[in-house]
Amino acid sequence: MPSVRLLALFSKSLCIIAYLTATVSAEPLYWSAKKDNKEFLIFGSVHIGTSEMYPLPQTVTDYLSSSDGLILETDVRKESDIRYPQNQITTKSILTTEQKTQLTHISRSLKLNSKQMLNAAPWVTALTVQLKRFEQLGYDSQYGIDNYLGIQATLKDKPVLSLEPMQFQIDLISQLNNDGQELLLSALNEWEHSESNTHCLFDSWESGDKQNLQEMGGSSEMSDEMIERFVFNRNHDWAQQLDGNGLVGSNSKHLMVVGALHLVGEQNLIQLLKDKGFTVKQLSTSKKAPCAFVH
Predict the structure, then answer these.
(1) What is the model's pTM?
(2) Fewer CB within 10 A of the end CB, N or C, for the chain?
(3) Domain count of the chain?
(4) 76-96, pLDDT tens digit by residue?
(5) Are 41 and 248 in contact (CB under 8 A)?
């Protein structure tokens, strides 16, 4: 324990540090990643949002202006001929009576047709409920970071590249066991705390709170297998693409935008790039978000 004298000696310095820290604005997470003559600015995104999230950090928008292009998880604006599977399992066939009642109440609160939800594939029901809940809480996909920066890149005549096609994401979800039963059950189980946790997600994103974001990623009711497919495998694939020359050339500079949860926690993209020899540095300023996730 430091002595009282030591504390007294540093009291003024600590006050100054506290003042300076308090006056620094927090930002969403972003890192620079460099290897040889290849450079990325990696920005953690949320796929929906509000107008209050803008403007984005000037470092990010200026980087886009001077870059060779934008890299997204997928550019939905360019996708066509998406094939949706003919699922054989319905939501009502995999739910208990109690869960059906819960889904009916949730559907009514979201102004959804409960019969349609019960007759849809579990993964369709899960995504519909989640998206409508976000809308109910005031969040919209038009304010998603990916969508916004995709538009900005187009206006600046910057190429927009995709890490994976939209069809891959559709197949990833629709090919889950029992047509997405686990995804639906997770949505139902987390419904009670969905409002506070959704708001906390955005507070944590805006604050660049890595600990909170990591906790959210780790607190999901998704199984280890599902996390492996949705997060870990994709992170490894993206790291391989960034390290190779198939996506971008060796002499290049790109802004990369992926979900913030891919950049924190176990097997995150930032650490994987470090493992591949990239020099990675966090450029954003973080602070603790004024919230905690409820389990």
Answers:
(1) 0.89
(2) N
(3) 1
(4) 877 677 888 888 899 999 999
(5) no
